Amino acid sequence: MCIFASPKIIIMSSTQFDELDRKILKLLINNARKPYLEIARECNVSGASIHQRIQKLTSLGLIEGFETQINPAALGYDTCAYVGFVLSDPLRTEEVVAALRNVPEIVEVHYTTGKYDLLAKLYAENNTHLLKVIRDRIFVLNAGRTETLISFKEEFSRQVPIDQMSVDQ
């Protein structure tokens, strides 16, 4: 089973962000479970300093939290799909999103521009399970037209680039 931790990071402009913060973020992206003392050694600062910096990065909204990422296939979810929604009534968007929250196989929902109003990512055990989720949990919403795309394989997933962030001079 493939289980690893990864920090969920949101990068925002801040005048309080410097090179040490960038290095800490890079180390956490590579291993969110890395002990503060090891990070401190690699950054040539004290453990207390690292602790304070991580608290600062969290309070600034740069780090949203730490989560364990589980390989869906290792749990029997072999099919990843995206469902695009073209809503028949845009005034029902919030109602549709609330209903989608109740579908456990749906792991992400995004508001989008272009072809779809909403884009949902979901995992199913197989194509039969996917069809059941679509018929029994999504079609019954009467939200409008949908289009389903099946992902054959996720080639990579990564955080935003830390190296391109501006730092205090």
Annotation keywords:
single chain, 169 residues, alpha+beta, 5 helices, elongated
Could you please describe the fold and organization of this structure?
By secondary structure, this protein is of the alpha+beta class. 32% of the residues lie in helices and 27% in strands. It has helices spanning 19-30, 36-43, 47-59, 93-101, 127-138, and strands at residues 3-9, 63-70, 79-87, 106-111, 118-124, 144-151. α2 (36-43) crosses α3 (47-59). The N and C termini lie far apart (44 Å).
Mean of all residue-level pLDDT scores: 89
Give the N-to-C terminal Cα separation: 44 Å
Query: What is the share of helical residues?
Result: 25-40%
What is the makeup of the main sheet?
A: 4 strands, antiparallel
What is the overall number of helices? 5
**Can you tell me the overall shape?**
elongated
Number of strands: 6
DSSP strand content: 25-35%
Low-confidence stretches: 9-15
Please write the string of helix (H) and strand (E) elements: EHHHEEHEEHE
Radius of gyration: 20 Å
Strand arrangement within the widest β-sheet reads 4-5-3-6
- Output the structural class: alpha+beta
What is this structure's SSE topology?
Blueprint: E1 3-9, H1 19-30, H2 36-43, H3 47-59, E2 63-70, E3 79-87, H4 93-101, E4 106-111, E5 118-124, H5 127-138, E6 144-151
Antiparallel strand pairs: 1-2, 3-5, 3-6, 4-5
In short:
This protein is an alpha+beta fold and 169 residues long. Helix content is 32%, strand content 27%. It has five helices and six strands, in the order E-H-H-H-E-E-H-E-E-H-E.
